[in-house]
Amino acid sequence: MNFSAATLARFAKEVAKYPSDQAQSAVMACLAIVQQELGFVSAESEQQVAAYLGMPPIAVHEVTTFYNMYNQRPLGQFKLNVCTNLPCQLRNGETALAYLCERLKVEEGGTTADGRITLQKSECLGACADAPVLLVNDRQMCSYMTHDKLDDLIELIQNQPVLSSQPRAEGISHA
Ligand code: FES
């Protein structure tokens, strides 16, 4: 797979923001573009971004694997990241995750049978006081997620239009 001319143009725009000998500084932006367009960053994409930016493939892989907002595999249309770090654990973060696993009939890290929802645990989302918290599609924070609010969220998601292909919806409206 090679990137399209449109994708390469977007890469070039990002690279142009940095001095000519520092193209590597655009690596995160280029990976974000890949994910926006393809839904995830494959090993092949990492290698191509590395070649484009003139950096070792392992250095690109280190970026992809350090930040959990980069998906390394295809996910559902909706990605739910539930925080289970210690402050949230003390305020029902694990309970919220377990409840969602049961409701959605998935293991942590799995995707629902209809392919719509991927459920994952996450590191601290910076909203410890609002626990339990979860992030929808890397963008939308949901706070104080009691079981009732989790039910409302699932219902809201299930009422969203089905996208036939990636990329996923950017977000949903959630009261
Ligand atoms: S520990 Fe969960 S948001 Fe900080």
Give a written overview of the molecule.
This protein is α+β, with helices and mostly antiparallel strands. 41% of the residues lie in helices and 10% in strands. It has seven helices and four strands. A four-stranded mixed sheet has the order 2-1-3-4, with helices on one face. Helix 1 (5-15) packs antiparallel against helix 2 and helix 3 (43-53) crosses helix 4 (57-66). It is elongated. The mean pLDDT is 92. The structure holds FE2/S2 (inorganic) cluster.
Helix/sheet category: alpha+beta
Task: Kindly report the average pLDDT value.
Answer: 92
| Radius of gyration, in angstroms, nearest whole number | 18 Å
Largest sheet: 4 strands, mixed
Unique bound compounds: FE2/S2 (inorganic) cluster
**Distance between the terminal alpha carbons, to the nearest Å?**
41 Å
Number of helices: 7
Topology:
Blueprint: H1 5-15, H2 27-38, H3 43-53, H4 57-66, E1 78-83, H5 86-89, H6 93-104, E2 117-122, E3 134-136, E4 140-142, H7 147-158
Parallel strand pairs: 1-2
Antiparallel strand pairs: 1-3, 3-4
Helix pairs in contact: 1-2, 2-3, 3-4
The protein binds FE2/S2 (inorganic) cluster.
Descriptive keywords:
single chain; 4-stranded mixed sheet; alpha+beta; 175 residues; binds FE2/S2 (inorganic) cluster; 7 helices; elongated
